[in-house]
Amino acid sequence: MRKRSRAAAGAPPPPREFVTATLLAVLPTDPEGVRISRTWAAFYSLVLAEPDLIRHGARYPDFIERLLAEQLRLAARPEPELTAAGLLALANGLTSSILGGQRDAAAAEAVLRHQLDLIFG
Question: pTM for the full model?
Fold first, then answer.
């Protein structure tokens, strides 16, 4: 039964594809993504001013970092936790650069893909 379920679901994506898709999902590439990113930025700003609010969801990035680190570990990349933290920080910075008008989504994606090429070869 388990084998049939896996076969029906298909194979999981390779680590590089998983990491790429996860990080691209963070970037605001359309109006809805911009709205979500602005909302998250506003919430995060509030958490910085009111640390008691952290229990209401500001730990979400920790989950993403662990998820990325596991994929990097599967790909046998060195220092997966540090690499995951750096990649998520890059995606967050690129999000800010899109929201602030420094670059458009395509340019941000190019920066992200370049870093992934350096990591995965």
Answer: 0.83
